[in-house]
Specification:
The protein is of the alpha/beta class. It has 2 domains: 3-302, Type I PLP-dependent aspartate aminotransferase-like (Major domain) (Aspartate Aminotransferase, domain 2, 3-Layer(aba) Sandwich), CATH 3.40.640.10; 316-415, Aspartate Aminotransferase, domain 1, CATH 3.90.1150. It has helices spanning 9-13, 18-27, 65-72, 81-95, 109-121, 136-142, 161-168, 201-214, 269-280, 288-332, 357-366, 397-415; strands at 51-54, 60-63, 102-108, 127-132, 148-155, 158-159, 184-187, 217-221, 246-251, 262-268, 336-337, 346-351, 372-373, 387-391. The longest helix has 45 residues, at 288-332.
Length: 417
């Protein structure tokens, strides 16, 4: 693959930081190595010497002085080496990449990696394909980039490959370096935010073939991969990637801690290298303390324990989803439409009103109930939208029942105006 086609001038101009390179060399050196090169502070001056923390099952984990020194010091940009190794093994086990030249970076949650990836790939005037409705965090990244955002429709089975093919058919399938053909496709394949929908295996196959045909890079934003409500999981786009055209974004936020801000990006090394260079001149690396805490948890669990935890979390959200559907059926039949989420934390409701913005942002708040109006997930948020996003992640069954009761009352009032 010609990766220079996908990278903009700014990204191609980035050079490795000599100091960041030295940090990685020092961590991999023998104990006899004497370094007067790095500007690392002396860990002996740090006030925290050790720490212990308790897991929900009662297990106590200790971070002794040696581990704490590593946690409080600078670490290589790709991440704490042992954690990078652990996550790479997880990716091999779960996604089984089909080509050898792939790499992985630990990032400040997955969103920072998505932001840096777009910033490396998009030039003003570029056409960018984006699943719609879409995650507002991603829209906030790309909208100011002075690019042409092209919405690709989705339904209860995820992004529609027929719509994608129809859009791409306007261009020659053999793009030149001067072509204005889109280069990037962004999508959320599982438990979509805001829809809760997931791509079928058939659709993933079709989307990948279209990407091959038109030489598209796929940005697979998949923080809800492990929150799929049915097994076996639908294989990821990364797992079918034979060309090195999928950049995958994972997150530990939904499984272990959102406040840790730990995610990762996996994909072709020429792309992850460019993201790493961007990190070197911005955040330098994700929090080493967060990484070390996560590493201790993962080492305590091992792979079997990790997947047991995944099942526990997924079962929790599956139960909340069922409670949410039950409350919607009780209060919103005839007032709204929805389809059952395949994973994640959200129910996407189409209300029987012309537009939900004022209803949700003003009237619902006055009734002390919060949802997100659907226009927040549109490329053009000024257009009327009948949808709202309801999250069932933190509400109790009783709270969801009350929330939908209040929403039903508001819809009726709106219809009777």
């Amino acid at each position: 693959m010609n990766y220079s086609r996908f990278l903009n001038t700014l990204s191609l101009a980035r050079q490795p930081s000599a100091i960041r390179v030295l940090t990685a060399i020092l961590q991999q050196s023998k104990p006899t190595m004497i370094s007067m090169a790095g500007g690392m502070p002396n860990v002996g001056t740090f006030p925290i010497e050790s720490a212990s923390f308790k897991l929900s099952d009662g297990t106590m984990l200790e971070m002794d002085n040696t581990k704490m020194k590593q946690a409080l010091q600078y670490t290589p940009t790709p991440g704490v080496p042992e954690l990078v190794k652990w996550i790479k093994q997880l990716q091999k086990l779960e996604h089984k990449p089909l080509y050898s030249d792939w790499d992985l970076l630990v990032t400040n949650g997955s969103q920072d990696a998505i932001c840096k990836c777009f910033e490396a790939m998009v030039t003003p005037g570029d056409k960018v394909l984006i699943e719609t409705p879409s995650y507002p965090g991603t829209l906030a990244i790309v909208k100011p980039m002075d690019c042409d955002l092209i919405p690709v429709k989705s339904d209860k089975n995820g992004l529609d490959p027929n719509d994608l093919e129809q859009i791409m058919s306007k261009w020659d399938s053999t793009p030149t370096s001067h072509s204005d053909i889109p280069k990037v496709l962004y999508l959320i394949p599982n438990g979509g935010n805001p829809t809760g929908h997931g791509l079928t295996e058939e659709r993933k196959s079709k989307i990948y073939k279209i990407a091959q045909k038109y030489d598209l890079m796929i940005l697979e934003d998949d923080p809800y991969y492990y929150l799929q409500f049915s097994k076996p999981y639908v294989p990821s786009l990364l797992s079918r990637d034979i060309d090195g055209r999928v950049v995958r974004f994972d997150s530990f936020s939904k499984l272990i801690s959102s406040g840790m801000r730990i995610g990762c990006v996996t994909g072709p090394k020429p792309i992850t290298d460019r993201i790493s260079l961007h990190m070197q001149c911005s955040v330098m690396h994700s929090s080493a303390l967060s990484q070390m805490v996560l590493l201790e948890v993962l080492k305590n669990w091992d792979e079997d324990g990790f997947f047991k935890h995944v099942d526990k979390v997924t079962n929790f959200y599956r139960q909340r989803k069922d409670q949410c559907i039950k409350a919607a059926e009780k209060h919103l039949n005839g007032l709204a439409e929805w389809s059952e989420p395949s994973g994640g934390m959200f129910l996407w409701l189409k209300l029987n009103v012309p537009d939900t913005f004022e209803l949700i942002t003003v009237k619902a708040r006055e009734k002390e109930v919060l949802f997100v109006p659907g226009n927040a997930f549109q490329i053009d948020g000024s257009k009327p939208c009948q949808y709202v996003r309801a999250s069932y992640s933190t509400c109790s069954e009783e709270q969801m029942d009350m929330a939908f009761s209040r929403l039903a009352s508001l819809i009726r009032e709106e219809q009777n105006r």
